[in-house]
Amino acid sequence: MRVKSVSVKKLFGVFDHEIPLQSAERVTIIHGPNGFGKTVMLRMIQAIAEGNTSIFEVIPFDEFRLTLDDGTARVIRRGQEADAHDRKISLEILVVDEQGHETATPQLQLTSGIPKSVLDRVDRHVPPPYQRFGNGWRDDAGRQYLLVEILERFPRAKTALPPKYRQPLFPDSSKRLDVYFVETNRLEGSRDSSDDFDEEEWMRHERLGAHPTMRPDRIRPRVEQYSEDLLQRLKSVLADYAKHSQERDRTFPERLVQFVRSEAKVLSERDILDRMVQLETKRRRLISIGFLDSESGLRDLTEEDVRRTSEALTIYVGDVQEKLRVFDEMAAKVGKLMDVVNDRFNYKRLTIHRERGFDVRSDADKILSLKDLSSGEQHELVLLYELLFRTPKNGLVLVDEPEISFHVAWQSGFLNDLIGILELTDAYAIVATHSPVIIGPRWDLAVELSGPK
Questions:
Q1: Rounded to whole angstroms, how far apart are CA atoms 424 and 305?
Q2: At 285, phi and psi to the nearest 5?
C-alpha cells in the first residue's frame, strides 16, 4: 500500500498544502520558505505510520489527510474543548473508504503488560502533583490515574512510550504504512544497545542520588554505529554463503552420479564457457567490495576441456550460480554505496573490511578513523547508508534537507543517486529541501508549499 497524496488544512492556522506524490520516478520534492511546514508535514506522515498522535496535539491544524493508492484515506482532525482548568486537545481519527464514508477509530489503545521501567520513563514528562503509584499515578488528593488517562492529559508524555506498546491508530494491518524518516540530525548516534544496561537499576540509583561515574548509554557517532551494523549484516550473509557452499560441495558427487545416470541434458561447451566468464566477473566484483577473498578458479578452459567434463562442469556452474546468488541483494547495495562514496570523496577511498566494517584509507594507504571524516563526508556516508539499508522495501522514505553539509557538486548529484537507490530498494520518497541545486532541472518532480493567495 502506497501513499498517493498528502494534504493539510490550516497548518499553524494559516497554510493549506496539497502534495500529490510522483509515481513514475518514485520521488516527490517539496520546497518553500522557512516556516511553511515542510518538516512538520514529514513528521506528521511518520506519526500516522507509527501510531503516534503527539505532534497532532501540539501543532495547530484543522485536518491532515493521507490518501492511499486504493482510494481510501487516513484522516486526523483537531479541535479544542475548554474545561474549567485547561484547554484539552481533542483529535478525531478517521478511516475514509473509497466512497468517502468516514469511520472513527479509538484515540488511544495500549497493549497490556507495560514494564515498570517504561512507566518510569513516561513519568519524567508528568508534572506535579501527579506522582508514580503502583501501575499508574495519583495526585495530591489521592485520586489514581491509569496510563491512558495520563497520556490524554499530557500528550508530550507519549513520546516516551515505545511504539511496540501502542496499538496502531488504524487497525487494518493489510494497509500498514512502512515509513523511514531521514532526519537532519544524522550524525548523532543512538544509545549503544550492545551495552548491558539495566534501566531500572540506573533509575533506582538516580532517585537515591547515587550516580555511577558513567551512565552506560554510551553514544557513538552514527557513522561508527552503521559500520558495525554493516559488519553484522555482512557476517550474516557470509554465514548463509558458507552454509550453501558446504551443502553443495557435500552433495556434489551424488548429484553428479545421478546426473550421468539419468542422461540429463548437458550445457553446450560455449554456454558453459560463457557462464564461467560471467561467474568470474561476478566473483571479482564480490572480491572488490570485500565479500570474498581472492581465489583461483577454473581459467583458460578450452571447448575441448569442457567437452571432456561437460557433465561435471554443467553441475559446477549451476552450483556456483546458486552460491553467489546469496550475495545479490547485499552486494548490489554495498556496491552502490561504495561507487557513490568513492565518486564523492577526495584523496581517500572507502572499502568494506570483514572485521572492521567501513574501511576508509587515504591515497597514501593510511587507515583513517571514521570520526576524522569531515562533516560532509559523514553526512554523505550516513545518508546513503540509511537510504540503502534502513528504508523498508516498498516503503516511503522521508528525507529532510539532504543538502546539509554538502558541497554544491554533491548536491547536484543527489537526486540521480536517490532515484537509482529507490529503484534498487523498490521504495519511494518525499524530499524536503531549500536547495534549488538538489532539484536541478527536475522541477517536474517538485511541489511548492506556498502561503495564502
A1: 39
A2: -65, -45
pLDDT digits (tens, 9 = 90+) for 181-228: 999 999 887 654 443 444 444 454 444 544 444 444 456 899 999 999
Kindly state whether residues 397 and 275 are assigned to the same domain. Answer: no
- Outline where DSSP puts E strands in 173-237: 179-182, 188-191, 219-221
The single-letter code of the amino acid at 253 is P
Pairwise CA distance, residues 69 & 158, whole Å: 30
Share of the chain above pLDDT 90, in %: 57
Q: Which domain holds residue 249?
A: 221-391
Please report which residue ranges of 302-374 form alpha helices under DSSP H. 303-308, 310-325, 328-344
Neighbouring-strand partners of residue 18 = 7
Does 235 share its domain with 370?
yes
In this structure, are 251 and 387 located in the same domain?
A: yes
- Cβ–Cβ < 8 Å for 187, 385: no
pLDDT average, residue stretch 143-148? 84
Among candidate residues 359, 358, 391, 266, the one with its CA nearest the CA of residue 316: 266
In three-state secondary structure terms, 199 is helix
Beta carbons within 10 angstroms of residue 83's beta carbon: 7
For residue 6, list its beta bridge partners: 19, 66
Whether residues 73 and 19 share a domain: the answer is yes
Specify whether 268 is located in the same domain as 359: yes
Instruction: Count structural domains, the chain.
Output: 3
For residue 357, the SS3 value is: strand
- pLDDT, residue 110, reads 60
267 and 373: one domain? yes
* Domain presence at residue 171: no
CA 85/CA 71 separation, integer angstroms: 42
Tell me, what's the pLDDT at 136?
Answer: 87
Query: For the whole model, what pTM was predicted?
Result: 0.80
Residue 353 cell numbers, joined: 573490511
